[in-house]
C-alpha cells in the first residue's frame, strides 16, 4: 500500500490494528502490519512515489515473496458534483493528466508523441468489488504534478477527461512501478478538497483521513481475498 505521506499511511494502518514492524530499505521504509498489508509512505509526486514503490517491490521480489497487488491510497481533490468532500473514489483508470506536450492546437499526451503510456487500468472486478464494499464511486483518477488551482484548469481537465472524479499526485507513478514488475495496481482517494480555484479554507484533510480509515476498514476483506485467490 503506497501513500504519499506518513499521515495517510497511518490513517490506512488504523484499519489494520496490531503490531507493525518497520523495515528500512535503501530509500524506503516499509511498515509491515501483522496479517495485513505492507504500508509505504512513498513521497509526494509521481516521480518519488514511483522510485519508492519500485524499491519496495524489488526488495520483496528479491526475497522471494513478491507482492500480489499495489494500492495507491491517499487524500485528493474531487471533481464536483460527483466527488464531494469526504467521499471515496476508486480508480478504474489511472491517468497522467499532464504527461505530454503543449501545442498551439492543444495538449498532446505522450502516447500521441509515440512514447509510453498515459493510463493504467486496475483489474475491473477488483475496483468494482472495492467500491461496492466501501461505498466509493468509480471513475478516472488523474495524476498531476501541479495541483489544480483555477477554474480554467479544472474545466480543461474535465473537458479532456469527462470521467475524471478525482486528482492526486502519485497514482500514475505508483502504477508505472507496479506495471514494470507485472503487479496489478489500484488507487483509492478520499476527497479532501474540491478541484478548482485554490481555497485553503475549503480543505477537509481530517475528514478525508477519517474517510480513508473507515473505507479501508470496509474494503480490507476484499483486498485479503484478492491476495489469497
Ligand atoms: O496549496 C494548495 O493549493 C494545495 C491544494 C491541494 C493540495 C495541496 C497539497 O500540497 C497536497 C498534495 C498531496 O495531497 C494530494 N492531494 C490532495 N488534494 C489534491 C488536489 O486537489 N490535487 C492534487 N493532489 C492533491 C496529493 O496526492 C499529494 O500527495 C496543496
TrEMBL record:
Enzyme class: hydrolase
InterPro entries: FL_hydrolase_MqnB, Nucleoside_phosphorylase_d, Nucleoside_phosphorylase_sf
Pathway(s) where this gene product acts: Quinol/quinone metabolism; menaquinone biosynthesis
Record has Hydrolase as a keyword: yes
A family per Pfam: PNP_UDP_1
UniProt superkingdom: Bacteria
Sequence ranges assigned to domain Nucleoside phosphorylase in this UniProt record: 35-200
Reaction equations catalysed: futalosine + H2O = dehypoxanthine futalosine + hypoxanthine
Keyword Acetylation annotated: no
Any one GO molecular-function label of the UniProt entry: hydrolase activity
E.C. numbers: 3.2.2.26
Keywords: Hydrolase, Menaquinone biosynthesis
CDD domains: futalosine_nucleosidase_MqnB
Family classification: Belongs to the PNP/UDP phosphorylase family. Futalosine hydrolase subfamily.
Role of this protein: Catalyzes the hydrolysis of futalosine (FL) to dehypoxanthine futalosine (DHFL) and hypoxanthine, a step in the biosynthesis of menaquinone (MK, vitamin K2).
Protein name: Futalosine hydrolase
Species for this entry: Streptomyces erythrogriseus
Native organism taxonomy: Bacteria, Bacillati, Actinomycetota, Actinomycetes, Kitasatosporales
Gene for this chain: mqnB
Amino acid at each position: 500500500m503506497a501513500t504519499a505521506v506518513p499521515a495517510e499511511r497511518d490513517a490506512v494502518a488504523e484499519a489494520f490494528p496490531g503490531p507493525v514492524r518497520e523495515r528500512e530499505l535503501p530509500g524506503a521504509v516499509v511498515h509491515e502490519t501483522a496479517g495485513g498489508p505492507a504500508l509505504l509512505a512513498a513521497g509526494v509526486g509521481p516521480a518519488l512515489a514511483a522510485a519508492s514503490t519500485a524499491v519496495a517491490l524489488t526488495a520483496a521480489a528479491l526475497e522471494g515473496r513478491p507482492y500480489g497487488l499495489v494500492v495507491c491510497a491517499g487524500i485528493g481533490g474531487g471533481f464536483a458534483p460527483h466527488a464531494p468532500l469526504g467521499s471515496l473514489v476508486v480508480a478504474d483508470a489511472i491517468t497522467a493528466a499532464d504527461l505530454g506536450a503543449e501545442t498551439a492546437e492543444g495538449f498532446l499526451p505522450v502516447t500521441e508523441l509515440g512514447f509510453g503510456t498515459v493510463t493504467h487500468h486496475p483489474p475491473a472486478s477488483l475496483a468494482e468489488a472495492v467500491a461496492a464494499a466501501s461505498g466509493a464511486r468509480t471513475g478516472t483518477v488523474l495524476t498531476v504534478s501541479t495541483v489544480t488551482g483555477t477554474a480554467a484548469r479544472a474545466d480543461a481537465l474535465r473537458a479532456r477527461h469527462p470521467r475524471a472524479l478525482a486528482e492526486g499526485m502519485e497514482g500514475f507513478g505508483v502504477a508505472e512501478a507496479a506495471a514494470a514488475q507485472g503487479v496489478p495496481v489500484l488507487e483509492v482517494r478520499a476527497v479532501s478538497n474540491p478541484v478548482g480555484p485554490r481555497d485553503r479554507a475549503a480543505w477537509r484533510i481530517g475528514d478525508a483521513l477519517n474517510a480513508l480509515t473507515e473505507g479501508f476498514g470496509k474494503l480490507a476483506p476484499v483486498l485479503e481475498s484478492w491476495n489469497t485467490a
